[in-house]
Amino acid sequence: MAIPNSPAVEARTVTVVAHRGNPYRFRENTLASIRSALQAGAGAVEVDVRLTRDGVPVLLHDATLERLWGRTRVLDSLSADELRELTGGGVPTLREALRLGSEQSGPRLFIDLPDASAAEAAVAEVHASGAAERVYYCGGATSMLAVRRADPAAETALTWTTLMPPRQALLSAVAPRWLNYRFGLVSPELVARNHSDGLLVSAWTADTRFTMRRLLAAGVDAITTNRVGTLRSLLRG
């Protein structure tokens, strides 16, 4: 089941993807957390992007502020200015995250879109920041179709939660470079099948050495983790 015009699978390297930054040291999806993950050796940082009421893409996984910021407010009921005031500026905009470095040396961001309605604004911000070459997107089919409509050239990772392969029609419409699996689904056979179809395989979220070793042995191309240092040490052997 080859994908028309899909990129060839590269010679194997494993990308260390920091899950929402370095959340065991700094609050997730914050600039401090992103910086810490990069300093720990992450090759990319996964961040979650949602929209404020006035359409500003910001870094937040949940639909509300309750878990991380202790505020029982729904994000899309707040303007960007109100969000800044409630969190003391703690929830960064996507623009701020993209501009941590220059276009050439800034962080490679893996933008997770839990809500497809944020896709168009996120893609627009990425392009406005000159960061298209160092950003890729992940999410379910609805979100990735929205990204593909907004940017036909975007690099995407289709999050897939079953062992049954995606339908050819979906793969053709999304044209993903990656399939992104929960770590428990990954096996050498699954990786080999996707590689034969021209797809790279990423796995999330692996935090134990046992799981990391199993995924590396299976041949995955990227691992998302909350423990960047642990994964880096395994890769160094």
Describe the structure.
With 237 residues, the protein is α/β, with parallel strands linked by helices. The chain has a single domain, classed as Phosphatidylinositol (PI) phosphodiesterase (TIM Barrel, Alpha-Beta Barrel). It contains 10 helices and 9 strands. Strands 1-2-4-5-6-7-8-9 form an 8-stranded parallel beta barrel, surrounded by 5 helices. β8, α9 and β9 form a beta-alpha-beta unit. α5 crosses α6. The longest helix has 10 residues, at 119-128. The protein is globular and about 50 Å long. The termini are far apart.
CA(first)-CA(last) distance: 35 Å
Tell me the structural class: alpha/beta
What's the CATH class, please?
Answer: Alpha Beta
Proportion in helices: 25-40%
Strand count: 9
Estimate nothing, just give the exact number of structural domains.
1
Number of helices: 10
According to CATH, what is the topology? TIM Barrel
Biggest sheet statistics: 8 strands, parallel, barrel
Shape: globular
Give me the strand/helix succession. EHEEHHHEHEHEHEHEHEH
Any descriptors?
globular; TIM Barrel; 237 residues; eight-stranded parallel β-barrel; 19% strand; GP_PDE_dom; Glycerophosphoryl diester phosphodiesterase; PLC-like_Pdiesterase_TIM-brl
What is shown here, in short?
Pfam families: GDPD (PF03009). The chain has 237 residues and is of the alpha/beta class.
Per-chain topology:
Blueprint: E1 15-19, H1 31-39, E2 44-51, E3 57-59, H2 66-69, H3 80-87, H4 94-98, E4 109-112, H5 119-128, E5 135-139, H6 141-150, E6 155-160, H7 168-174, E7 178-182, H8 188-196, E8 200-204, H9 209-218, E9 222-225, H10 228-236
Parallel strand pairs: 1-2, 1-9, 2-4, 4-5, 5-6, 6-7, 7-8, 8-9
Antiparallel strand pairs: 2-3
